[in-house]
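SAMPLE LOG
Freezer: B-3
Tube label: C17
Construct: single chain, 259 aa
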Amino acid sequence: MKANSFVSVGSWQEAYKLLKASPKNKIVGGGLWLKKGNAEVDTLIDLSRLNLNKIEDKGDYIEIGSMVTQRELEVSPLIKSFSGGIISKAVSQIMGPAFRNVATVGGSVYGKYGFSDLITVLLGFEVELQFYPSATLSLDEYVKKPGFHDGILTHIRIKKTERKAFFKKVAITALDYPIINVCITLGENYKIVVGSRPLVATTLDETMFYLNNGGTNFDEAANVAYNEVKVGDSIATKGEYRKELVKAYVKRGLEEVNK
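STRUCTURE (predicted):
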């Protein structure tokens, strides 16, 4: 990626005005993928001066600023104490600490990356995204909606509803992109999420319908997941192998959250 200028903004108004000034102006998060793209950008807009690096207990929910790094999310006592620390455990498997010290939560979520371990585990909970100037979307709604929101992602909010949780990342090595991610959470109902398909993470609605309407046979649920999940081929592996992994880990995850 080539950028003609870089601006560290001092206010939301300045950031939004600059973003809307040109379709070639972009918000920058951790900036780790800039070298991977070949798009030309007029202005990169940096939000690091806007106090978005906090993780706070807001009573009914946990609020995470979009500029919080993945490492800060991983080691946060608040995140570690929530639902058995499953979010922290999932984030700890992303690349290495040097990567997580730079990558931002907002960048990973907003970018809808197909390989995002973070989106996969967050979809297992009730999560909403706050955009400047005035929009709120559920994470599930955002990932299913084509394209990107035209506002600025400011905060990620996780409803503080404790759920039993399972997360599995399958990769060739710890520093590789995942071949598949599976997250299962159980509270009043089940949430089943598959990521790195290699498409962006998604809930398995048919599988959840089976389980949330009295289905108790985990082998059958795994078969439903196998038939439902949409996957593709990649350099790392074939889609059919991904489906087999989903089948195996959906069953294993269901057994885990029901212990």
